[in-house]
Specification:
Helix Hairpins, two-stranded antiparallel ribbon, mainly alpha, globular, 9 helices
């Protein structure tokens, strides 16, 4: 049986941009393709994400055979030209999502997976360092006092995101993208200080 998610996902990632599971889910409108899979909201979301990841790893194998490489990790999904000798070796993430025994899981296991994910993500440090004068200029632009904390940054970001979201009549996709990039720089700066 053909997996109906594979073609929809391929269309979403064919732009060769970096995606995440939730952006792919939004792009393919996963809630229309997949009906409610569980009464428990955490489990419903987990199962939909599981099916997307499962389809991504199936697609990864198909694309390797067709001369493309699909990079799949928890925060970076990207289609690219096939690199010579790009092996698909041992991958615990792929093994997890291709094992159907993991599809049915308890709410407690899902919470533990999420906690583990956020702890790993929180320990990552940004690869690049943004000069302090650029950070201070962004703070001024965002009307954010320096030094700032995570709570202040998130509040400011959410106000900008709601105001400038591309789905709003007054919104602009390019401006929103610029704001998101600035937010990521400001957030990364806080991470370097912690």
């Amino acid at each position: 049986m053909l997996n109906p998610l594979i073609d929809a996902i391929f269309i979403a990632i064919s732009d060769q941009q970096i995606h995440k599971v939730h952006t792919i889910g939004h792009a393919i409108n996963v809630n229309e393709i997949l009906p409610k899979l569980d009464e428990e909201p955490y489990k419903d979301l987990f199962k939909k994400n599981f099916l997307i990841m499962n389809a991504l790893f199936q697609l990864q194998q198909e694309l390797i055979n067709e001369g493309f490489y699909l990079h799949v990790s928890s925060m970076h999904i990207q289609l690219s030209e096939h690199k010579k000798n790009t092996p698909i070796g041992k991958d615990t993430l792929r093994d997890y999502y291709l094992n159907w025994a993991n599809y049915e899981t308890s709410k407690q296991e899902i919470v533990e997976l999420l906690d583990s994910f956020w702890q790993r993500l929180n320990t990552l440090k940004p690869m690049t360092h943004t000069p302090i004068d650029k950070i201070k200029a962004l703070c001024s632009k965002w009307q954010l006092s320096y030094p700032y904390d995570v709570r202040q940054l998130k509040t400011c970001w959410r106000q900008y995101a709601v105001t400038h979201h591309p789905d709003k009549a007054s919104g602009c996709a390019e401006h929103f993208k610029q704001l998101k990039n600035e937010y990521e720089l400001l957030k990364a700066h806080i991470m370097t200080l912690s």
